[in-house]
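Continuing from yesterday's entry. The apo prediction looked reasonable, so today I'm repeating it with pyridoxal-5'-phosphate included to see how the binding region is handled. Same sequence as before; SMILES copied from the compound registry.
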Amino acid sequence: MQFIHRVSNVMGERTDGLHEPVFQGNEKKYLLECIDSGYVSSVGKFVERFESVVRDYVGAEHAIAVVNGTTALHLGLLATGIKPNDEVIVPALSFIATANAVSHAGAIPHFVDVDETTWGMSPVALSAHLARVGQWRNGRLLNRNTRRPITAVVPMHTLGHPVDIVGILEVAKQYKLRVIEDSAESLGSRVGDIHTGLFGDVGVFSFNGNKTITTGGGGALVTNNSNLAAKIRHLSTTARVPDRFEFIHDEIGYNHRMPNLNAALGVAQMEQLPTFLSKQRTLFTRYAEEFSDFSGGKMKKENEEATGNFWLQAFLLDAEHAGIRDELISDCLDAGIAVRPLWKPLNTLAPYLNAPSSPSPITTDLYERVICLPSSTKLIVDVA
Ligand SMILES: *Cc1c(COP(=O)(O)O)cnc(C)c1O
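Holo prediction written out below.
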């Protein structure tokens, strides 16, 4: 089927990783400035600067920078009032951090299937599942099988393509669920004019080395709710109460603030975000052209009525070719081409085998048929 040839035609001579970072802007300059200032930890002007550029870019009223996307999700859950023993609905198809953050909050991830078009949580599956397992008791929604409260939902914008967030918000409203948006992969992705992360109570981004922009490790929460923002900031800085000299902490907080060094890298990366986004889109066009007359499957396209950031390029094998996924991946890896399958469905992994779950046939099907392709913006060479 010449799958490998088509991928390497797009890559040219390059054999980069799945999504390698690019540092072609002011990274070194700002990092040196940061070191020279002496402020390399959780205090310093780059943290504030980074928060303000993220806030302005996303169009949020508040942005709080933290050490990574997982801790951002964790803080988002705590700040919206998720308690130990609550159940939180997450997509069966996601990176494990989505479920782990729920566990870190002492809550239990409860898996729901995804949609075959968006690859994100399906509002239809969500609604049908809650109608089946949900039960109202004193104005609270309980899981009728486990008797635990179901209090929140964490939709995720898969590979940077917006989920049907409007549909999910409707179901969440009906069932009084908090919405924590896992926008870890979707910086630059919008539904209409509204940036992902701004639809729920709080949204979360990741700036890990393989994301659209990186701070080395890092994450951020965005929200338009001032109380929630204050709560998150407080929790992320050991819940310290301002005082001239005493160490006063009014609850158990976390040391989750982003260090100034990481923020310095982030400020430089944010300056290049428009370039990265345009290259990610160009890369999609190249793959789509290369595979246009290919008979075994097709590229994951942009979702209707949404602007995706094309963070990770993905190829969907036709159902009858699902059986050759591993062979194609092995061939590519042998040739030094960094392709990967999608994440194993979370409800099939050891830590979550016994977690509550809806049936998830679409998640299983996508897992068996998708191959993620090399997606670094390095693959799009600058024209001088
Ligand atoms: C990357 C990612 C995270 C976690 O981000 P880290 O910064 O690596 O902790 C969470 N959810 C999803 C869907 C991700 O892709």
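Comparison notes:
- The chain is about 35% helix and 15% strand.
- The mean pLDDT is 96.
Will overlay with the apo model tomorrow.
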